[in-house]
């Protein structure tokens, strides 16, 4: 039996609207965090939403509508297909990775005997087992992408593939555009972007509920500049999501560092035994 579900969503002070989204679909036992990637092109729909918002909220809509018998992979496939059709309708050039609307995904579906999980990108899923050990269940595939992109450019130049000189990519926007061409490619990173390769890149599996005491799902806006995810989880357990986010936001402000959208869900069992 679930003891407590806690969530938080805070918009970056640098943004007009939150590009993260979350689902807490208790009827289906589904909890998920989505982090839309801030666009590199100026598209806006008729409601003035950008591609990041549209991507994350497309997935939120599909997850909100999930029913008990639906699988995470099946719903991700449907949402990804829907996202593709929306981009086609908006005349987005899908051949250009930097124009596609994209979102990271971290989702769990809780059953009596186990929980199912699915993941793309750098939203993360961590659980604490019955012995108090933290298990980082997902891989942050975005981490290190700039270095991997630079290496790929170097390798391509050596093979005679026409690639601009490295000085060209000192422009942050051009570097980010190049990074996004590596979505769901070997050596790149994973993300939901409306393309079929996203489903092939999905990280998914099951964990026995016998092992689980607590689950934390978070967007990268809750990552701490100096702490491991284990320590972040420990701090959240000590102070709660709201206090942790407030402290992190204050620290990043003092460092003049980027403050991203911050979204997380914490699900606890057996909390009264602490």
TrEMBL record:
Domain PPM-type phosphatase: 16-256
Superkingdom to which the source organism belongs: Bacteria
Pfam family, one: PP2C_2
Protein name listed in UniProt: Serine/threonine protein phosphatase
Gene3D superfamilies attached to this UniProt entry: PPM-type phosphatase domain
Species this chain originates from: Halobacillus salinus
